[in-house]
Design goal:
four-stranded antiparallel β-sheet
Length: about 325
């Protein structure tokens, strides 16, 4: 497939991933006995996962088909939402309190519905009734500024609003509880090279966002009271390939890394996220971990194997893994 120059850089970055995890790992169905969850969905290539406590199901996105599916604890996948508006569904998160599912819509050039008008330009967010899948609203965030766009990850605040990262533009969007969409923060540090920049995001109840930068491995603390108050978090090492975030509590953040690292780490901060230390880490069993979700005290990490989707020479796969962290 053809890519615009910037997208080509992004895809090349994806293809630099270490692929030995998938080549040498056990067959995915054999992992179920170890507490992991495997599921099969025809070349779906999920990028993100969230867990709905109200329905007791995982919800997974699809870079290939732009759909949303459900996965049960015993690994049964079922289609849930098919919406032609979605080119590639990427980050998603469920708000159980309000029964709303939030989904980021982008076009990296690998979806069934990719087209020149949207490839590398699409930054949208759709909301759905989390029980029925009925569409509720759609926000065209890319129209808020010129240039390239890629809506990637979503974090919900305590009021039912959302913050959204754009990997191809130096901005963080906000959709408030009344449905008003705007550019919340803009900073030159958010975009310093072609390819994927801002990615994972988490809302902290003490009044700030934790936002990761995929290509550099930086972590920023962004105030939710003053969008100009953006501070780097001092880390013991750069977390290059930092993708999905899951905040466990005020002091513990799960960060899923790919881009060759293919691991999940737990960061700990005792000073309000001015600094953080690495408490533990776990290598991925399959390739391309991208997101994490929490069920009670347990965390599951999605290994969506997206490296095989973006590699034209690779065999396409339909088996995926929710790895217990």
């Amino acid at each position: 497939m053809k890519h615009r120059p910037m997208l080509a850089t992004a895809v090349v970055a994806l293809l630099t991933l270490a692929t030995g995890a998938s080549a040498g790992s056990p067959a995915l169905p054999a992992l179920q006995a170890a507490g992991h969850i495997t599921f099969t969905a025809q070349e779906t290539y999920p990028e993100s996962v969230t867990f709905s406590a109200s329905t007791q199901r995982f919800l997974v996105s699809s870079v290939r088909h732009g759909t949303i599916g459900t996965v049960t604890a015993d690994g049964r996948y079922a289609p849930f939402i098919t919406d032609k508006t979605l080119v590639s569904s990427v980050g998603l998160v469920v708000d159980d309190a309000r029964n709303v599912l939030w989904v980021a819509n982008a076009d990296p050039g690998a979806g069934d519905r990719t087209q020149p008008a949207t490839q590398g330009k699409l930054a949208g967010v759709a909301t759905y009734d989390a029980t029925s899948g009925k569409p509720l609203a759609y926000y065209d965030l890319g129209s808020l500024s010129a240039g390239s766009h890629f809506a990637n990850d979503i974090a919900l605040d305590g009021d039912g609003g959302a913050y959204v990262t754009d990997s191809f533009a130096p901005v963080i969007y906000r959709i408030d509880a009344h449905g008003k969409a705007s550019i919340y923060a803009r900073d030159a540090r958010f975009h310093t090279a072609d390819g994927f920049n801002l990615n994972g995001i988490a809302w902290h109840p003490d009044g700030y966002l934790l936002v990761g930068k995929y290509n550099s491995g930086e972590l920023f603390r962004v105030s939710t009271r003053d969008p100009a108050d953006i501070q780097p978090v001092q880390l013991p090492e750069a977390l290059k390939g930092a993708d999905g975030f899951q905040l466990l509590d005020s002091q513990h953040l799960i960060v899923v890394q790919n881009l060759g690292a293919d691991r999940t780490v737990e960061l700990v901060s005792t000073d309000g996220w001015k600094t953080a230390t690495l408490a533990r880490q776990l290598k991925s069993i399959a390739s391309m971990p991208t997101a994490a979700t929490r069920i009670g005290n347990q965390v599951y990490v999605l290994n969506g194997r997206l490296d095989t989707l973006f590699d034209p020479a690779a065999d396409k796969v339909s088996d995926y893994l929710l790895q217990k962290f």
